[in-house]
Amino acid sequence: MKKFSSLMLIALLFAACQSKNATSSDSAKADTTKYPYTIKKANNWEINTDSKNLVIATTLIKTFENLDTVNMSKVLADSVWFVLDGYKFKGTKPQFLKQIQEEFGKMSSFKIQMQDMESVVNKDKSEEWVSLWYNQISTTKDGKSDTINLFNDIKLKNGKVEGLSEYVQHPMKK
Q1: Assuming Cys at both sites, which of 12, 44, 118, 121 could form a disulfide with 48, CB separation 3.0 to 4.6 Å?
Q2: pTM for the predicted model, two decimal places
């Protein structure tokens, strides 16, 4: 009887450890929600588990923090676009670096406090983006300091930054 009980216990444990096949009721169902807006082309974004794009995007932000166009050049594509608070650029990497170097010439320092980051890719792998949330404390050469909250969407292709959209939130005045 003891042998039979041990065999039953082993059989039950073995059965409990087996993975169940997904049934049609367990599988993902189509979203039938009626939204007030429709999207012409759904990209079906998913989390990008490869950390490569996060490293590239945060390296770009670190080059801003360090006022470093030499290393910035290493992560930029040959053609880039940037849409920042009060600034819009579309052109070649050398043109952008020249303009940003002029802006860096006005700055004493940037301090970045990263809050969060996420890398996504659409299911057909044709678009890759990284989103960054951070606080930035900037100080101009004439001593003026400003703190802003930023959200960046950074578009990457072939391991290089193609573009950046930046959204700024200025803290409320007390």
Answers
A1: 121
A2: 0.78
CA distance 166 to 150: 7
- Which are the contacts of 138, defined by CB distance < 8 A and separation ≥ 6? 107, 109, 110, 111, 145, 146, 148
**CATH 3.10.450.50 for domain 47-169:** yes
pLDDT in tens, 29-86: 777 888 898 888 777 899 999 999 999 999 999 999 999 999 999 999 999 999 998 8
Token pair 């490569």 in the structure block, residue: 52
Give exposure, 105-134, as e/b (b: 16+ Cβ within 10 Å). eeeeebebeeeebebbbbeeeeebbbebeb
CA distances from 89 to 25, 66, 71, 73, 167 (A): 50, 21, 19, 16, 15
